[in-house]
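DM from R.C. (forwarded with permission)

"hey, sorry to bug you on a friday — could you get me a structure for this? deadline for the figure draft is monday and I only need the backbone to look sensible"
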Amino acid sequence: MERYNDRSASELLRGVQNDFREFCRAQVRFFEWLRNNPSAGFLATSEAFESCVRASEFYGASSTELKERFPEEAQKLHELLMPIQREFFDR
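My reply, with the result:
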């Protein structure tokens, strides 16, 4: 996770928030695509899902980096991510 090696906890928190927001967007796009393409074949569905999974990799890597380097920030991270999650999924 080279891009975060020298960042402070607050910089990492902002990065994780951005990565989580992109992951949420990817999930929404996937489920919208799935809803609009109910008879899509396995290959098309798999490709759409893989796009969502790729977005999750950035979030997973950045949140892991934060929790490993600054474990005391885990609760704060949770508090920062909950409003983002609600923004996308409490509709």
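R.C.: lifesaver. The chain has a mean pLDDT of 91.
me: no worries. Helices lie at 9-36, 42-69, 74-89.
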